Amino acid sequence: MSLIANRRTLLAGAGGGLILAALPGRAFAAPSSGFTHGVASGDPRQTSVMLWTRHVASAPVKLTVEIAEDEAFRTITLTGETEASPANDCCARARVEGLKPGRWYYYRFMTPDGATSETGRTRTLPSGETKGFRIAVVGCSNGTSGWFNAYGHLAARDDLDLVVHTGDYIYESPVTRPDAAPGIAQQRGLAPAGEIIALADYRQRYASYRNDPDLAALHRRLPMIAVWDDHETANNSWATGASAHDLATEGSWDARKAAGVQAWREWLPMGQAWYDAYQIGDLATLFRLETRLLGRTKQLDDDLDALFASAGDIGAKLSVFRSGPLADAGRSMMGPGQERWLADGLKASVGSAARWQILAQQVILGATVFPKATADWVNGALPADVRSDFDRRNQLTAAGMPYSLDKWDGYPAARKRLYDSARAAGANLVTLTGDSHNAWAFDLADERGSVGVEFAGQSVSSYGLERRFTGDPKRIAADFIAANGNLKWMDTSQRGYVTLDITRDRIEAEYVFVPALGGRSAIATGRKTISVAHGARQLDA
Question: DSSP for 135-196?
Fold first, then answer.
């Protein structure tokens, strides 16, 4: 439902104070009725934003929405109505139209009997000349692996304009997965216990995630632009299936995908578009891509497994595989429609004199081979499964093959088309990525030279390479950098988030590290800053 601002006088903008959620002494829980999960905002534009709340009742409830420029709501800028209905898991959304660009607003929801939600804070995108804008980038928040301290740390800051979530907002796997950190899922009250497949399962999992006070605080404080990755449906998904979906025991993939998408759209304050663009004044165009469920061709992992299982010279077979199936021009990440849309959008952005063209998407774009893995990567004796893993990865490295076919590395022709589109447009390309759980910074380049840069963020809580490779993280990172000329920096063992300070002449990325284990904490344990100058299309030396 859209709401149009009235003509009342607006007050001067306000930013609000710092907050820090209190530490609970029992399992996180929500009320069983009424306003159960706080408020959220997202999908901002220059004159509009999506507002969200959840009000649980046995029948649909009309909710009044109020928005003001002061937290006390002394002068109401807008009023309107929306509805929370059991048909949408009692999630109510309202697209607020007619706001002023680049302003902070406060909002709340009220029931006919006077019950009032928490107050949220949101912000519209700026228009016209814009000197600076600051984004936080988060992703990969496995609720069984660690605490959401990255969300809590972000919620306590007062120097951000927007949060971009690069996906894996929830995980679909069983709560009792073997690698779960002891006690965390139980204290969170994550449900249901098993792998989620049906719509009711996805809804329940979102509800239990959103009980987390740090995630709730982040949504209450800042607007979010979210993309989904694979775990919002099933691990390693593509348009017509997923490696973690068993047709024989879990039924139709189309039904499961539809359920995951519906629950995501109910619980996230986002519009219905599969992909979209956001204009940040004349400073940047932010493109939200979809690389999982719409146009992605199936990964080649099964083909590669069969190749390794077959007889013959593995090096020769990998050479044929690399020049044949892997290089197939028909393989796609986005689908032809989205590719054309992005190419046109990049040209339009540059033509409008926007300084930066930023892609928010799911998986790493930078080309990466696995370094020669050694026993130094593991403390103590080398387990048999790790030794076998090393052998396979080292054979891929020797053949010049990427180590992961789920990334853009598994779709080199599609990546080339993206690079060609950026070059044709003259874009100052910056990519924001998640998925890997580790922190990376790449120059994006091919045989024609540099085309842009990539800031790939570490996870909020999901395990990284440190889970399997227990040796010195600095040694492992150094080996990766030595094996990949376009990889300029990496961290393989810490959790957290990334901020982007976007100015007309430079983008500075700061990787902020916070603990994910050992309890809830708002203390940063480390930082790393990397930047790119406008027009350079490669990271500062």
Answer: EEEE----TTT---HHHHHHHT-SS-SEEEE-S-SS--S-TT-TTPPTTHHHHHT---SS--
